[in-house]
Amino acid sequence: PIDTTGLYAHAHFPMGASINTNLLRNNAVYTALVAKEFNSVTPENVMKMDATEPTQGNFNFGEADYLVSFAQQHGMRVHGHALVWYQALPGWVTSFNGDSTAWENMLKTHIQTEVAHFKGKVVSWDVVNEAIDEDGTLRNNIWLQHLGPDYVARSFQYARQADPDVLLFYNDYGHEYSAVKRAAILSLVTGMKNRGIPIDGIGMQMHTNTTVPDNAIAAAITAVANTGLKVHISELDIAVNPGNDQNMTFTPAIATAQSQKYQNLVKAYNALPAAQQFGITTWDVGDADSWIPPFYHRPDWPLPFDASYKRKDAWQGIVNGL
Ligand code: XIL
């Protein structure tokens, strides 16, 4: 029998996806699928700094507001992404000329204007995204260069001042394949927590692939949960072509392996205490929309829905893991 129940109805925590507002506006099949399968959404790009503050002090929340109202109409949660990142910066930031006070005010204004705009509309924010580098040091980005290492903690304080109720997350990738990076992320986060910096959760992006062992993924999820903070699998996709084979095709055997990987990951997450299960969000919906092929210049099929928005074996794997 065909299971007509949406993904989220199978789970006791929210199930979400990152949403492309161009597709949401223009593709009725996509829009209906999103409403049916998910009860949480993250904007893929439209809450990033280049979208929301394209010129200094000139805020543009139109696309993000469109997503928020879609979510409200369908009873879905909105997770905000991302206030402070080193990518998706508007040109005026990369060429910003000012002393450390001017930089500080510019960052604070950005965070607080955006958080205040969405107060009561988003339940949570990725406050800082990808601040740790592969070697476990703070990433040498413009924020670190102009504001010093405590820009991460101050960003959380600024967000909290603008909204006392919204949940604040530190979001990053690599927990499941790099012990060095994971340790650095956990030390950053627990350091903030112990100093009384407001932080509610950790986003594990989980851009992973079928060659990463199940036990490494499960161990990473457990280690992150051991902080006591909420855990969001925030950008899940499971690539099947990490070797960049330009001639690869998506065979039934590959579909089965991917489905198994999704199932075991979801099973590991499902075992966490309910109070720490913020939810699982896939990064994009259908394989044709995935950021992976254009970013890595290769064919890939990382998502639970195919290019026609039909459920793949991976969809069933997720349900089986719940
Ligand atoms: C990606 C989007 O999916 C792309 O559309 C965009 O061109 C670049 O950013 N980690 C993140 C996300 O935190 O914001 C990124 O999203 C993917 C990697």
UniProtKB/TrEMBL annotation:
Catalytically driven reaction(s): Endohydrolysis of (1->4)-beta-D-xylosidic linkages in xylans
Active-site annotation: E235 (nucleophile)
Domain GH10: 1-321
Documented EC number(s): 3.2.1.8
Keyword Hydrolase: yes
SUPFAM superfamilies linked: (Trans)glycosidases (SSF51445)
Keywords: Carbohydrate metabolism, Glycosidase, Hydrolase, Polysaccharide degradation, Signal, Xylan degradation
Main enzyme class: hydrolase
Family classification: Belongs to the glycosyl hydrolase 10 (cellulase F) family.
PANTHER family recorded: BETA-XYLANASE, GLYCOSYL HYDROLASE
Name the record gives this protein: Beta-xylanase
